[in-house]
Amino acid sequence: MRPYIIANWKMNGSFDALDEAWGIDEAAGEYRDVDVAICPPATLIAPMADELSYAKAGAQDCHQAESGAHTGCLSANMIGEVGGTLAIVGHSERRQDQAETSAIVAEKLIAAQKTGLEAILCIGEPLDVRDAGEAESYVCQQLAESLVGDIDPAMLTVAYEPIWAIGTGRVAGESDIAAMHAACRAQLVERFGDVGAGVRLLYGGSVKGENAPQILAIDDVNGALVGGASLKAETFAPIIAAAA
Ligand code: PEP
């Protein structure tokens, strides 16, 4: 399976940050056996999509509706129109800040795929759930509830991101990542049949150049979704290199 490394810039980056995108694109050109994507703030999708040669540009979210009275939102079609080819859906910061339920995330995922965007579905448990020993059932339930309806597994990537590991410098243990990815893989195969074995499963949560080789070597980890370390080409390029 081709490894997939995705940058999530969150609400960071003005026009001068495009230089970092060009640096990331250079790294993507150097390691062509790795798929690389950047999801910048919406304002930077078009300029990136116009200029990137090897990395793809995408969005951090899309609305589930095609158009209408949804102030401040972007439809999947709008993202595609400016050259975006993927959309992250269900990031934990949106599930928390915008009260997005898995039912809403499922609709967003279908809306993205319907317009030809790849969907990157994020799932992950909060710390109290992990401490209670219920992480696996929580995440599997999120996965099931986010994959409802007519979904194309060929246009789907799943990112497991334990919430307590996002932006904290704390990485999940290797055996915990392996166990969670194995559980997600089994569920994907149950949901999609053999094709489910080909859906890429990424890990996210404080991935950096230093820990990427260990994380990416874990069974069923097919890449990484990266926040903080993706903002600079010099910290993101080593993660791409580690996946090659
Ligand atoms: C993320 O926001 O998806 C993420 C994984 O962030 P960080 O790499 O900063 O933990």
Automatic annotation (TrEMBL):
HAMAP family: TIM_B. Substrate binds at N8, W9, K10, G167, S206, G227, G228. PROSITE patterns: TIM_1 (PS00171), TIM_2 (PS51440). Homodimer. Keywords: Cytoplasm, Gluconeogenesis, Glycolysis, Isomerase. InterPro entries: Aldolase_TIM, TIM_sf, TrioseP_Isoase_bac/euk, Triosephosphate_isomerase, Triosephosphate_isomerase_AS. The keyword Isomerase applies. Belongs to the triosephosphate isomerase family. Its EC number is 5.3.1.1. GO terms for biological process: gluconeogenesis; glyceraldehyde-3-phosphate biosynthetic process; glycerol catabolic process; glycolytic process. GO terms for molecular function: triose-phosphate isomerase activity. This is Triosephosphate isomerase. Pathway: Carbohydrate degradation; glycolysis; D-glyceraldehyde 3-phosphate from glycerone phosphate: step 1/1; Carbohydrate biosynthesis; gluconeogenesis; Carbohydrate metabolism; erythritol degradation. The active site is at H91, E161. Involved in the gluconeogenesis. Catalyzes stereospecifically the conversion of dihydroxyacetone phosphate (DHAP) to D-glyceraldehyde-3-phosphate (G3P). Pfam families: TIM (PF00121). NCBIfam families: tim. It comes from the Bacteria. It catalyses: D-glyceraldehyde 3-phosphate = dihydroxyacetone phosphate; L-erythrulose 1-phosphate = D-erythrulose 4-phosphate. The lineage of its organism: Bacteria, Pseudomonadati, Pseudomonadota, Alphaproteobacteria, Sphingomonadales. GO terms for cellular component: cytosol. It is found in: Cytoplasm. It comes from Alterisphingorhabdus coralli.
